[in-house]
Write a structure and sequence with these properties.
Helices cover 29% and strands 33% of the residues. With 164 residues, it is an alpha+beta fold. It has two domains: 1-38; 41-163, Jelly Rolls (Sandwich). The chain has a seven-stranded mixed β-sheet. The longest helix has 36 residues, at 2-37.
Length: 164
């Protein structure tokens, strides 16, 4: 009889442990998905004759996170950084794992471009990271996969139109 109660106890406690860890894992996954999917707004952007699906980084936290931690970016996509004032901003690629083209924008026109900025090596210290900046003050900047600018014909002077 004692053996029966030990088995019942183990079965019940094992069931509770499985349910507990299952619930906590599902809750953790849900909270991560819900916050990450809401962190960026999505839109389309036309640069010259090229249409892109973009994520909008328009707050300090969104701009700080940028594309870091992602293994890739779809070819027809990008991230648009919108700034509160016109300035000569500086950028680095901390945590970015793939080459990028930087398209610097002022008053709805492409004013400067940096092609194929190379991601840093995994063990590179922050102080050694390359700093990228436009040749003049800007109000926004578009990041796309490295090589997209040259393959799609985007050039300085192209008009940029955001469609929400």
């Amino acid at each position: 009889m004692k053996k029966f109660w030990i088995q019942v106890f183990l079965l019940v406690s094992g069931t509770f442990l499985v349910l507990y860890f299952s619930f906590n894992k599902q809750f953790e996954d849900f909270s991560l998905l819900s916050t990450s999917s809401q962190s960026f707004d999505y839109s389309t952007l036309k640069v010259g004759e090229v249409m892109l699906n973009i994520e909008i980084a328009d707050t300090p936290n969104k701009r700080s996170k940028g594309l870091s931690g992602r293994p890739s970016l779809p070819l027809d996509s990008g991230m648009l950084f919108i700034f509160p004032e016109e300035k000569k901003y500086q950028f680095w690629m901390k945590g970015v794992e793939f080459p990028l083209d930087f398209i610097f924008i002022k008053d709805g026109k492409v004013v400067d471009i940096i092609n194929n900025a190379t991601p840093p090596s995994g063990n590179q210290k922050d102080a050694a990271l390359t700093i990228y900046s436009p040749s003049m003050p800007i109000d926004s900047m578009l990041e796309v996969n490295g090589g997209v600018v040259s393959s799609s014909g985007i050039k300085v002077g192209d008009l940029v139109t955001l469609r929400k």
